[in-house]
Amino acid sequence: MLAKGRRLVMLACIALTGVHQDVFGQGVSRFDQLIAIERAASTAEATDRSSGLKITQAYERLYPFDRKSVSRMDGATAREGFDAAEVAAFYGSDSSYVDQMHAYLTRLETLHAASDRQYAKMQGIDVMHRRFKDAIAIARSHPVEGMQSVPRVEGWVDQGTSPSYLVPSDDRLSLHYANASLHGRQVIVIAHPLCHFSVNAMHAMEARGKATVEALKRMRWMTPPEMNLSLTAITGWNRDHPEAAMALATRLSDWPILDDWKTPTFYFMEDGKVVEKISGWPPVGGEERFYATFDQWTAGGSGQKHP
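Above: the chain sequence. Below: its structure as tokens.
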């Protein structure tokens, strides 16, 4: 797992003296409470959906949003609200958390108190929620060193949520939007080229033989929505592993059938329903169990070939 793992490493550097899972003493700030709940919820055993729900519910309880109140906040309060909303937007699928981040940032701009760090975080969350126009606008109006370049997106007409993905061009200058058919039997793999567990899984399956390599072509490989598009790494993977070319999942809300985005996670599906889910590499339950399910699902040329 990538983005959430990096975030928890960052949180390990935050001092939370005296804060324990759900019991807080006097003097503990709202933000420290939110971060403690985030750390407690983000366990290996919990699904991303269940941990995200706990975190966003805590945010809504601790930071009830009121646009008029935001317009009167001082700089310190607006900064805290921005950071708290970023936690909710990072874990939640609801785009209203992104709107709230923008509201806090607008207040900070009014006070001439917005920082490069906040602009970079805002652009990253816009990218994660696939609000590409907003991400491009921030990069143009407030360029920050290290801020990613957002490619043009072709074919996306946002008409609500549906399973979909983005295919990067080889030159990384464009992303092509496509709807995902969930008809029949297929395997969806959530993976990432910068995740060594994903890399180990690919190497193991490639080493298994020609039949397995052919079966990889009929699986749908996707990276989870993250704050960084990682297009250089993804196109490099696709060049090295054309039989398992990766696309980028659109938004969490477009994939309600998937409850975990840890990498790698293998979803064995039939007509849009998850029949079995196996995570990790080595896979949870062992390689024998994994390959038994894998062979059953990919036998006879069944499944959807990734475009």
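The two ends are 25 Å apart (CA to CA).
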